[in-house]
Write a structure and sequence with these properties.
By secondary structure, the protein is α+β, with helices and mostly antiparallel strands. It is built from 20 helices and 28 strands.
Length: about 600
C-alpha cells in the first residue's frame, strides 16, 4: 500500500477517533444525536468546536432539530445511467435533499453511518441568484469536517451506476441552518406554511413521487400559500402523464428517480442537462395551482424536452415538436373544454381567427402540399431562408395531436381504440438498437412504421396527407440543422411495410380535431341542405354548425382544385359556427363527414 495513502488514512482514523473520544463524556452516541442525561454545562462549554458545542447545548435543552439534521438517505440509479436506458436527458441529480442551507465559509461536521463501500458526497448548490455554483464534498464513514466554499442548499449524492441498493445511509449534518424539505406523503399544508415562514434560505426543496422542485420561498408564499400538497401533486400528475405517453407505465418502467425543476434568474423557461428551469417571474403561472392547471403547457413543454427519446423520437426539425406531444395532451387532460390548438386565436393564410394554427396547417399540408418539416404557419411564414428550410413548430404538432385524438379519445369503445398508442411507439423507440450511422429521415420513416404497428392499421394515407410521407430533399432548420432526404423509394418501402394492415375506417383521419371527436367516435352521418344554413359574405360563408350536423370539415374548390379547408368550428369560440373562406374563383363548398362522404353546401 502506498505510504502516503496509508499515512492519510491513519490520520483520518485518528482524527475521527480523537473527536469521538474527546466528547464521549458529552455524547452517548458516535453520531452526536444524543447527550448524556446528566451532562454538565461545563462539559459542554469545554467542547472546543463551536458547531458541536451548540448542538450539545440544544440537545440538552431539547431544542435541537434532530429529525431535520439526522436523516436516512436512499440510493438511486445514476442519472447518466438512467438517461442511457430511457434515451432521455438526465433526471434529478439532486435526490436526497438534506434540508440544510449553508452560507459561504460555514463549517460543517457530517457524521456518516455505514456506507457499505458506496461513494457518497455532500453537494452544495446555489439556486439563490443568477450566480449558479455548486461543489461536491466527498464523505467517508464516521466523522467528517468540511469548510463550505459556496452558499446554497445541500444534497447527498448517493447514486449507483448499475444495481440500486435497498440500504439507506444515516447521515447527521451539523452546521449550516435548517431550511427543511417538503415531502409529499410526509407533510401537510400546515407543515408547508411553517416551512415557508421559517426557511433559512431563499429556496425550498419540494419532493413529490415523480418530480422534485427547488423554487423560491418568497414566490411560493405569494402564489401557493396553504397549497404545498396540491402543487406537488399537480406536478406529479404532469410527469405521470408523460410517463404514460412514453409507455413507461404500461411496461412497468417508471423510474424511482425523479425529474427536477428549479427556479432561474435570467431568461424565461428552458430545459438543460440539469432539468427544467423556470424564471422566478413565471411563478405566478408555474407555482400557482389554479393557473398551472388552466395552462400547464410551459411546464409540460420543458419537462417534455427532458423526456424526449432521442434520436428515435427527436430528429431534425422536431426538437420543439415531439416534446409538445406531452404538452398538448396534458393541456387537454386538464381542460378538454378548451383545447389549445382548436381555441387559440392566430393568423392563418387569411386572417387571425380561433383555430388559426390548425387552418394554417391544413392549407400548408393539404392545399400547398408542403413537406411536414417545412410547413408554414403563424410562427414561421418564411419557409426558405438563406441557410435552411423550416416550418412552424406548432403546425408540425397538429398531425401528431390528431393521432392521439383518434386512437385515445374518439377510439373509446371502438375497434381502433388504443389508449397506449404513443406508449407503444415510444416503447419501440426506447428499445431500438443504437443507430449512430442513420440519417434523420430514417427516424421519421421508423416513426411512421411504428405508428402503423401501434394502430395495427395502414396509416400511410394519413401520413401522406400530412406531408410526412412525401419526397423532400432539403437542409432543415433546427438548433442543429441537418439534411432531410426522403425519396420515392423510401416512401414505397414504408407503404409496402404498412400494407399488411387494413386501412382505417375513416378515409379523412386528417380532418379530426377536438371539435369533431363525437362524429368520429359515434360514426355520425353528415347532413345539411344545399344553399341553406349559412350566411354569405363577400369572401366567405359563415356556416351554422347545427344546420350542417356532424360535418368534420368544409372544403372550398375552384373547379376540381382544393383551395381552402376549414375544420368544423374554425373561427368560433363555442363551435357553433365555422368560417369558410371562398376566394375569387370559388365554385363549390363541400361539407365532409367522418366517413369521407361529401355533400354540397353551395
Amino acid at each position: 500500500m502506498n505510504k502516503v495513502f496509508t499515512f492519510l488514512l491513519l490520520s483520518a482514523i485518528c482524527v475521527q477517533s480523537y473527536a469521538q473520544q474527546q466528547y464521549s463524556q458529552v455524547f452517548t452516541k458516535d453520531d452526536y444525536s444524543q447527550v448524556k442525561k446528566n451532562v454538565k454545562d461545563q462539559d459542554i462549554a469545554n467542547i472546543n468546536n463551536a458547531t458541536l458545542q451548540q448542538a450539545a447545548r440544544q440537545l440538552k435543552e431539547g431544542s435541537y432539530p434532530i429529525q431535520q439534521r439526522l436523516r436516512a438517505y436512499t440510493n438511486y440509479l445514476s442519472p447518466k445511467t438512467l438517461s442511457k436506458q430511457l434515451k432521455t436527458s438526465p433526471y434529478s441529480q439532486y435526490e436526497n435533499p438534506t434540508g440544510i442551507y449553508f452560507s459561504e465559509g460555514d463549517e460543517a461536521i457530517v457524521w456518516v453511518g455505514k456506507t457499505n463501500g458506496a461513494p457518497i458526497a455532500l453537494r452544495v448548490t446555489n439556486w439563490d441568484d443568477k450566480n449558479f455554483k455548486q461543489q461536491d464534498y466527498s464523505l467517508k464513514e464516521g466523522y467528517n469536517t468540511l469548510k463550505i466554499e459556496n452558499k446554497g442548499n445541500a444534497y447527498i449524492q448517493y447514486f449507483s451506476e448499475d444495481k440500486v441498493s435497498s440500504k439507506k445511509i444515516a447521515i447527521h449534518i451539523l452546521g449550516g441552518k435548517v431550511n427543511d424539505v417538503f415531502e409529499l406523503g410526509k407533510h401537510n399544508d400546515k407543515d408547508w406554511d411553517k416551512m415557508l415562514a421559517n426557511a433559512a434560505g431563499p429556496i425550498l426543496d419540494i419532493v413529490g413521487k415523480q418530480v422534485q422542485l427547488a423554487y423560491a420561498v418568497q414566490s411560493l408564499k405569494e402564489n401557493a400559500p396553504h397549497q404545498g400538497v396540491a402543487l406537488i401533486q399537480l406536478y406529479d400528475s404532469i410527469i405521470g402523464i408523460q410517463h404514460q405517453i412514453m409507455g413507461l407505465v404500461q411496461t412497468k418502467r417508471v423510474p424511482k428517480n425523479r425529474m427536477f425543476g428549479r427556479v432561474i434568474w435570467e431568461g424565461f423557461m428552458h430545459a438543460d442537462g440539469i432539468g427544467a428551469a423556470f424564471h422566478d417571474n413565471t411563478m405566478k403561472d408555474v407555482a400557482n395551482v389554479p393557473n398551472l392547471r388552466k395552462n400547464s403547457w410551459g411546464v409540460a413543454h420543458e419537462f417534455g424536452h427532458v423526456n424526449q427519446v432521442r434520436p428515435n423520437m427527436k430528429w431534425v426539425g422536431t426538437t420543439e415538436v415531439t416534446n409538445n406531444i406531452y404538452s398538448v395532451w396534458t393541456q387537454y387532460s386538464y381542460n378538454s373544454h378548451s383545447p389549445k390548438l382548436e381555441r387559440e386565436r392566430l393568423k392563418d393564410y387569411d386572417e387571425p381567427k380561433i383555430g388559426g394554427r390548425i387552418t394554417a396547417y391544413m392549407e400548408s399540408a393539404f392545399v400547398h402540399r408542403q413537406p411536414w418539416l417545412t410547413q408554414a404557419g403563424p410562427d414561421r411564414w418564411d419557409r426558405q431562408r438563406p441557410r435552411d428550410w423550416g416550418g412552424d413548430h406548432f403546425v408540425k404538432l397538429v398531425p401528431l395531436w390528431q393521432l392521439q385524438l383518434y386512437f385515445n379519445v374518439a377510439g373509446k369503445g371502438n375497434t381502433w381504440e388504443n389508449k397506449n398508442f404513443y406508449g407503444d411507439i415510444f416503447t419501440k423507440a426506447i428499445n431500438a438498437a443504437e443507430t449512430a450511422d442513420k440519417q434523420d429521415s430514417y427516424y421519421q420513416m421508423e416513426f411512421i412504421k411504428n405508428a402503423c404497428d401501434a394502430a395495427k392499421l395502414d396509416l400511410t394515407d394519413f401520413f401522406e396527407q400530412s406531408g410526412m410521407l412525401i419526397p423532400i430533399d432539403l437542409w432543415v432548420d433546427d438548433y442543429t440543422c441537418a439534411q432531410m432526404t426522403i425519396t420515392a423509394a423510401d416512401i414505397a418501402a414504408v407503404k409496402q411495410y404498412a400494407a399488411k394492415y387494413k386501412k382505417p375506417t375513416t378515409p379523412v383521419l386528417h380532418y379530426i380535431t377536438a371539435n369533431s371527436i363525437d362524429s368520429y367516435k359515434n360514426k355520425l352521418a353528415v347532413s345539411g341542405i344545399a344553399g341553406a344554413g349559412f350566411e354569405k359574405k363577400e369572401d366567405r360563408i359563415i356556416i351554422q354548425n347545427d344546420a350542417w350536423k356532424n360535418a368534420v370539415a368544409f372544403e372550398t374548390f375552384a373547379g376540381d382544385k382544393l383551395t381552402k379547408v376549414a375544420f368544423v368550428g374554425a373561427g368560433s369560440e363555442d363551435v357553433s359556427k365555422t368560417i369558410v373562406h371562398t376566394p375569387t374563383g370559388t365554385t363549390q363548398v363541400k361539407a365532409v363527414g367522418w366517413d369521407g362522404k361529401r355533400i354540397n353546401v353551395l
